[in-house]
Amino acid sequence: MTTTATKPTAGRARKSNQAKASKGLTIGRVFTKEGVHPYDEVEWDRRDVSQVNWRTGESVFEQKGVEFPSFWSVNASTIVTTKYFRGAVGTDKRESSLRQLVDRVVKTYTKAGVEHGYFATPQDAEIFEHELTWMLIHQYFSFNSPVWFNVGTPSPQQVSACFILSVDDSMDSILNWYKEEGFIFKGGSGAGLNLSRIRSSKELLSSGGTASGPVSFMRGADASAGTIKSGGATRRAAKMVVLDVDHPDIEEFVETKAREEDKIRALRDAGFDMDLGGKDITSVQYQNANNSVRVNDEFMEAVEADGRFGLRSRSDGSVIEEVQARDLFKKIAKAAWECADPGIQYNDTINDWHTNPVTGPITASNPCSEYMSLDNSSCNLASLNLLKFLRDDDTFDAELFVKAVELIITAMDISICFADFPTESIGETTRNFRQLGIGYANLGALLMAMGKGYDTDGGRSTAAAITSIMTGASYRRSAELAAIVGPYNGYAVNAEAHQLVMRKHQAANDSQTVMAADRGLYSVATREWDHVVKLGAENGFRNAQASVLAPTGTIGFMMDCDTTGVEPDFSLVKFKKLVGGGSMQIVNQTIPRALRKLGYGSEQVAAIVEFIGSNGHVIGAPGLAQEHYEVFDTAMGQRAIAPMGHVRMMAAVQPYLSGAISKTVNLPESATVEEIADVYMQGWKLGLKALAVYRDNCKVGQPLSDGKKKPEEKKPDAKVEPEVRIEYRPKRTRLPKSRASRTTSFAVAGAEGYMTSSAYEDGGLGEVFLKLGKQGSTLAGVMDAFSIAVSIGLQYGVPLESYVQKFTNLKFEPAGMTDDPDIRIAQSFMDYIFRRLALDYLPFDDRADLGIYSASERARYVETGSYVTEEDEAEMPEAESLKNDDGDNFQVDGARQPSLIDAHTTAELMESLTGTAVDAPLCMTCGTKMRPSGSCYVCEGCGSTSGCS
């Protein structure tokens, strides 16, 4: 990162940075310096941004000469330019600099804050503007996408990404639902609602006929969503449909999407194009929504006891049918096993933490299931980049984090003063309750950098402490704002309930099992919650809700985050775009920092990073202790985090959130229905508010699924031709009688040996002889036999690359330092021998794919950012060059492993490394494969998402 700005410390803030009753906020400088504008602290450069659809070769977007800080990655600047810059491309009205974008948003917020009495003096308003600007350009946080789309433009200034609607048991209400949902989709946002008030198909209408039931009306809404999406949106419509578990049509609802999945399989086998985005997939229903069942404690207790459970009439609440609770629960789990729907929402837990129960219950959520509040309401989101708050000594700067939260919550609340809303009812509810959704991204990267495994007590303790600080500081600032600009309109009638929920958060914090390393964090959280309870009792609160954990898809890329939301790292290897075109494979840049934290030296770090670059995982990495493997566990790959590891992390942070968590628990393809049922049961017991699962390859409509073709049947009268069988046998190519050879002496951990290798006239390796141990010893005999076997294999055409792949990183004693400057550490004799053979006989490109470089190549890389010489590099086409371009300098101890492969995203890269498919759709904008982000998907090529941004 190239910047002249120093990392801030919370100690620079003035002690008067507190709310003063009726006099406005006094803002102290934390991130900025008096007399220096944030823009003047950083270097800026100009870049050309272009996007091409990898599938079609079609140019999607181009804008030249855009301006960004030099330390912003190409990917971040590309996504911001294509997604957030306003104005027609190619005109003077088009934004061309991050400064214009940030000014458009921040100045609007500051102006509204002044107009509505948030600041004590004009100087405080100016400091607020500068502080917010500094954090945005340094990628400390980001507002959700609608803010960047709309604020400061002539368009309606919609700032919310999440909406909850409502529908009653009348045709007027149902048709109004279609209309309101359509307008929300048209604006690029998503909505959720609960259909449980609609009468079931087992009940009568007032006219005497039978009701259609909610599932039938879902068809119309699904068709509407699909039409609006295809009419102009670049992503699938984001919507959530919820039905209470006691609704008489619950079984039909549960099985709806599973039955459609059966239809997809049948049509695929018949030769129809049923891939996601395929021309025939539109004939399948209910594919534009996420479905969730709202379960209550009564039902879950009946499941545990294997008891009966009543399904109730929508008109009078009477029980019209009884079912075996465990059977229904198993049907829910089976449907989720078949097609990943429905998810689960735990009604009593949700409403136990509800701050406004007097006004009404929480019945539904937004599409990604993190925002849960009143019907006809909305929430604007913002997320902090946690890795930015990690000090150089690898400890989390809690005080700096608190100051950042104060500023962000203030800005988010100000936005409601000028925001526009898609419907008047949503606007009225939001202005009356002022729901906010502060959250964070990069948790997985933060824990890794701190040397903590995601699925460990230490990792969960740190995550819980940070979440508690965030929500506590948010509500404390909300109480301070209430003293200045008043509590939210709905607070008075809900005051007792709101304060009770605050005490529940405080009690959860006080009862948390604290790891020794996190005591400092918990002391800050405890202080914040003490202030929340005290100030809230005095002032009330400005906001009914403060925090959620959203997917942070597009804005995560804007902040150059390695991980999104509460997720672990997706994979240890990623794609990085290069200035001027092209891309390269990189190893997660957090890994070297984590290895140093764990006590590894620079040579060990380089060797481990090189191994990860070649293999995509840490299993067998040279010198890496097995007890440290858990630090590098990921969502995908060889050491994927177990399903309950995800659930336990959600349970650790849930007590400190106002809303819920957007996250999908991934299970392997081999997972059973019973395992999914257990995940849903444990989610209830651990106090989660919602839970969704995904079993690998449970959906047919995926980009990599191949349509099966039925074999052609033989015509009965066809003449049977005699079978012709051609056999191909390997042919041995012997070495000439006189051939070039080389003898290499070596030592591994002090044990010496000799290797003689001979080559064909074209330079290809044809024979190897190894001399280890005394003549006549068992070791010498085994090495002679091994040498003959390898030599014969080479002469029969087995590629040397195959031997290198199999025998490098093979670990046994003796292992350790060698006397070879090109290979400083070897895991065994075999590891050394085949690395040496690769260096001697394989071309550079083949070695680069295997992550094997000579000492001179590694030294050249440190100096120039390229393993190849300038002469060789000059001969390469620019897009395929392995160099780091000017302005794309991100030196980290060997953390990059260039590779010229056909993948265009991290998801595709993981597929190429692991040989397994990532179940995710193709991006409709740029054609690359998206990757999971919370309960949604995100494209790291262009930033498009399938849900909340």
UniProtKB/TrEMBL annotation:
CDD domains: RNR_II_dimer (cd02888)
The protein's name in its UniProt record: Vitamin B12-dependent ribonucleotide reductase
Top-level taxonomic group: Bacteria
Domain TSCPD, chain residue ranges per copy: 736-840
Lineage: Bacteria, Bacillati, Actinomycetota, Actinomycetes, Propionibacteriales
GO molecular function term, any single one: ribonucleoside-diphosphate reductase activity, thioredoxin disulfide as acceptor
Pfam families: Ribonuc_red_2_N, Ribonuc_red_lgC, TSCPD
Region (Disordered): 1-21
Source organism per UniProt: Tessaracoccus rhinocerotis
Enzyme Commission code: 1.17.4.1
Keywords on record: Cobalamin, Cobalt, Disulfide bond, DNA synthesis, Nucleotide-binding, Oxidoreductase
Function: Catalyzes the reduction of ribonucleotides to deoxyribonucleotides. May function to provide a pool of deoxyribonucleotide precursors for DNA repair during oxygen limitation and/or for immediate growth after restoration of oxygen.
Cofactors demanded by this protein: adenosylcob(III)alamin
Family: Belongs to the ribonucleoside diphosphate reductase class-2 family.
Domain Ribonucleotide reductase large subunit C-terminal: 160-694
Span of the signal peptide: none
Catalytic activity: a 2'-deoxyribonucleoside 5'-diphosphate + [thioredoxin]-disulfide + H2O = a ribonucleoside 5'-diphosphate + [thioredoxin]-dithiol
GO biological process: DNA biosynthetic process
Domain Ribonucleotide reductase class II vitamin B12-dependent N-terminal, chain residue ranges per copy: 47-139
Database matches in PANTHER family: RIBONUCLEOSIDE-DIPHOSPHATE REDUCTASE (PTHR43371:SF1), VITAMIN B12-DEPENDENT RIBONUCLEOTIDE REDUCTASE (PTHR43371)
